[in-house]
Design goal:
By secondary structure, the chain is α/β, with parallel strands linked by helices. The chain contains 10 helices and 14 strands.
């Protein structure tokens, strides 16, 4: 449906207070799930990121790429194995993770942003000692536990007017490459940057009181409330580590953290530039 120029102007006027609130501030977006593999959703996220950058928001995009890694492993005849939701990563798999995340996926995202009018620079956790790591669990191989994050290179890229696009590959002093969980990396990077917000794109609507009823969305969760929500089972399964990352990000200095539905086109803009939002916001209370 076409909208009139008057309607366009009204939309912009309503968005102005939110634009003013975020202009000049750092927002970290964790990019994953369906929004990375569905072409329509991918285009919507990239447009949102480019627009936010153009109106003065300092966007940092942190991405994973699990489906692409799985696809490449299948091509070379390696079977993916998971333990507690984490990919078992031997030496060869770690090299493939580096190739796929820091190469194909990262540069593809950079190209898409540039094609939509933004300006981006691709980084991996190996650049500028951005993500230093060690073995998380011997059973998992080269799955990394972050030991240190150095955001100097990220700040340099932001200061030059570019959008940093970060693949979550880490390394150690011996040159070993590690597969790093993207939620964990995004939370740690956002904390080190003292970002205004961290937005995590997921394949669910947010935190639901009833997982089968999207109308039971909890719009705001205080950090102090999270333990009881976990104990009651409202936050369970794969959402527990995601929520723990949200809580940690706030403890590390991020003002607000959002879990939003990346399956909804332009969900990032709706969360940031409207008074309703589309997901669950975590705050420090």
């Amino acid at each position: 449906m076409e909208i009139t120029n008057a309607q366009r102007a009204k939309v912009l006027i309503h968005a102005l207070p939110y634009i003013q609130e975020y202009s000049g501030k750092i927002v970290v977006i964790k990019y994953g799930g369906n929004a990375m593999i569905n072409d329509k959703l991918k285009d919507s996220v990239i447009r949102d990121v480019a627009l936010l950058s153009l109106i003065g928001v300092k966007v940092v995009l942190v991405h994973g790429g699990g489906p692409e890694i799985t696809d490449m492993l299948e091509r070379v005849g390696k079977k993916s194995e998971f333990v507690d939701g984490l990919r078992v990563t031997d030496k060869e798999t770690a090299e493939i993770v580096q190739m796929v995340l820091a190469g194909k996926v990262n540069k593809s995202i950079v190209g898409l942003i540039e094609n939509r009018g933004g300006h981006a620079v691709g980084l991996s956790g190996m650049d500028g000692r951005l993500i230093e790591a060690t073995v998380k669990n011997e059973k998992l191989g080269y799955v990394g536990e972050i030991t240190n994050v150095n955001v100097g290179i990220v700040r340099d890229v932001i200061d030059k007017g570019y959008i940093p696009v970060i693949s979550t590959v880490g390394y150690d002093g011996d040159g070993n490459v590690y597969n790093i969980n993207a939620d964990t990396a995004a939370a740690r990077i956002a904390g080190e940057l003292k970002a205004e917000s961290l937005i995590s794109l997921t394949d669910i609507s947010g935190i639901l009181r009833d997982k089968d009823d999207p109308t039971t969305l909890i719009p705001v969760v205080k950090v102090s409330e999270a333990p009881s929500l976990m104990e009651s089972g409202i936050i369970s399964g794969g959402m527990i580590p995601k929520v723990e990352c949200c809580i940690n990000a706030i403890k590390w200095g991020v003002n607000r953290v959002f879990i939003i539905d990346g399956r909804t086109p332009h969900s990032v803009l709706m969360e940031m530039l409207t008074n309703e939002g589309v997901g669950t916001m975590f705050i420090d209370e």
